[in-house]
Amino acid sequence: MRFLSSPSRSLSFSLSFFFSLCRSPSFSHSLRMMGISKNGSRVLCFVIDTTGSMSDDIAAVRETTSFIIDSKRGTPDEPSVYILVPFNDPDFGPLMRTTDPNIFKAQINALNADGGGDFPEMSLSGLQLALTGAPPSSEIFLFTDAPAKDLNLMGTVIALIERTKSVVTFFLTGSLGLRRRRGSDQGQGQVQHSRMAVSDSQLYRELAQSSGGQAIQVTKTELPKATSIIVESSSSSLVTILQAVRSTGRADNFSFTVDESVRNLTAYVTGSSLSFTLTSPSGVSQSSGEVNGSLATIKTVGNFLTLGLDSQAGLWEIRVSSTVPYSLKVVGQSAIDFLFDFVEVSQGPHPAFAVLESRPQAGGNATLLVSVTGSDSVSLTEVALVEASGSGEVNGTLESVGGGDFLVTMDRIPAGEFVVRLRGENSATTRALPDSFQRQSSTRLRASTVMVMAEAESDLEPGTPFSVLFTVTTNGTGGSFTIRATNDRGFPSSSPTDLTLVTGVSANGTVTLTAPANTASGTDVTLTIEAESPGATDTNYAVLRLTVVSPVTDVSRPVCDVVSVTANCSDDCSLSVWELSANLTDGNGTGIEHVTLRQGNGTLNTTTVKGAGNWTVILAAYSASCCSPEVELVAVDGAGNVGTCFRSIRVTVDTTVQPPVTNATTKNSITVTTAKVATAAATTTTTAAAATAATAAAAASSSHPLSLYSYLCFIMLVSVTLVLSL
């Protein structure tokens, strides 16, 4: 639940801790593992078929991976996280995730094309893992030459695509030509005359279109040329300007507005037997037959066309003529983008909204929360729901709620699939008039007459059955609704296979999920519950992310005992060092996981030994320049309990009693003092911290618009401040 407004409260609070936390390497690393970085760089995620016929495909992935890593290392386009999910039959996974490009290279190089058995593979299971393991709005690339064996996951995958807004592009090398299966004991392999049928590749096309991706059909020899889209999609600040799909071949006109902030403008066309004419804002035209024209450079691989466009600001037009289905997508790099969610608004003294975790309801109005990102000089003029396969659209009524956020009310929702399109103006322009811009969502959405609601009130405990209650309602035709419950970890589960619904009357069900007893605490699992109407004409879902948590029996903090401090510092602190040794133990608890420095610029070395009572003791040895006179050790045990010890060698001055000289021959010896951390003495307090934080962030963003990284830091700061003020 998010509040639109809240009363200001006074709170004494130190902001320095949170600002330092946002700057800390550990916080930065955590955000990178979530796919969030200071420069807005993207996630590189591959889902790869590793059966015997995929040697050429894996080689192409290796080459592309090496190029991206080597060419983008240290640049704003360097991926923030690398993710790999292998699959074959009957296995899939595990998901491998790292921020280290060298580790990712090694993982790719270790892939071995072997086995596979029968023809279909577990491609949707691998994709499910990627969708739940990758950050939202990721670009995912799946490589296969075989149809999907796990067709029962189709609805689950679509639900996860809609919830995560991730884009999935498929490289299909089995639909053109023959498929060669290489067994581990067959050097030459066997040519199989069966190939991916049209219906098999159609499933991949539907998933690609739902997510805003491509279904690229090429031969294995053409694949290295087609992977250029991976390099382009891994660029930072990639935005979608136009996305359209036509399921039947016909002539159609598409127009799109390009603003001055856009660079590296590119159009992708997927389809065969088509022609097009491109017209620039200045009125210059180029036909699809001109490979190197004045407006675009056109590259064709298989059924996939890439148009490298001149990034000319203004209104562009492309006229497409085709006898078969096709898709069109126009992208570019720009700081200006938007986020959106369908929400439910609750009225009252403090109006708030809750994000819908399923499809919006058909037959009525709807509300979106739209957040414009990347610039404080833009104004929003239009938000519309546009039919994905047509030209119809529904315009919304805009209400600014501050901070670049807008509530958009729609009096109806399109009957079929739709996308969200945003238009506005940017006052930060070299033109005399404001610069018009256009952005569009990649993910295709749709409304539903079915409603699925589910909620988990606690966490899973390893080895213990866990119940999730859910409710299904329909405003459409009643009857027997098919129920499917799946989870991405493959945990044992049970649920009803169907529920009988009467229009307007709810029916309840229970999913029982059991995490194996050896499941590590902190493991997350994504549960998707689907309800499908009779005849499969309508469906909706609920997606829950649950966490496995072992019961906590250790509530005691680690203990830190300082054994000795040696500090003989000269007048010039840079010429001397001081040393501290300490013993850290957790008694009969879960054991100390790690020891780190919270304060101090010196060197910390630790050694683990067995002490009295067979307890584990960590011997800590710290040394530092006398110019760094304070140290604080932090020990964290397996249950998350934290123990600290602090020492300072600062000289203390007593104005009433002169301390005795303990060593006449060393007049520069330092008196060692023990300090306890006290809020009043050790921190600078601030009143009305939430207001101060907001003011500071606003002042900073006036000249430097908040990046997503900075925005998260700010949200964390304000959220914790408000929680502590309650």
From TrEMBL:
<dbReference type="InterPro" id="IPR036465">
    <property type="entry name" value="vWFA_dom_sf"/>
</dbReference>
<dbReference type="Pfam" id="PF25106">
    <property type="entry name" value="VWA_4"/>
</dbReference>
<feature type="domain" description="Hemicentin/VWA7 galactose-binding">
    <location>
        <begin position="239"/>
        <end position="334"/>
    </location>
</feature>
<dbReference type="Pfam" id="PF23610">
    <property type="entry name" value="VWA7_4"/>
</dbReference>
<dbReference type="InterPro" id="IPR052577">
    <property type="entry name" value="VWA7"/>
</dbReference>
<dbReference type="InterPro" id="IPR056861">
    <property type="entry name" value="HMCN1-like_VWA"/>
</dbReference>
<feature type="domain" description="Hemicentin-1-like von Willebrand factor A">
    <location>
        <begin position="44"/>
        <end position="220"/>
    </location>
</feature>
<dbReference type="InterPro" id="IPR056475">
    <property type="entry name" value="GBD_Hemicentin/VWA7"/>
</dbReference>
<feature type="domain" description="VWA7 beta-sandwich">
    <location>
        <begin position="337"/>
        <end position="430"/>
    </location>
</feature>
<dbReference type="InterPro" id="IPR057615">
    <property type="entry name" value="Ig_VWA7"/>
</dbReference>
<keyword id="KW-0325">Glycoprotein</keyword>
<dbReference type="Pfam" id="PF23619">
    <property type="entry name" value="Ig_VWA7"/>
</dbReference>
<dbReference type="Pfam" id="PF23560">
    <property type="entry name" value="GBD_Hemicentin"/>
</dbReference>
<dbReference type="InterPro" id="IPR057613">
    <property type="entry name" value="VWA7_4"/>
</dbReference>
<protein>
    <recommendedName>
        <fullName>VWFA domain-containing protein</fullName>
    </recommendedName>
</protein>
<dbReference type="GO" id="GO:0005576">
    <property type="term" value="C:extracellular region"/>
</dbReference>
<keyword id="KW-0964">Secreted</keyword>
<feature type="domain" description="VWA7 Ig-like">
    <location>
        <begin position="451"/>
        <end position="549"/>
    </location>
</feature>
<keyword id="KW-0732">Signal</keyword>
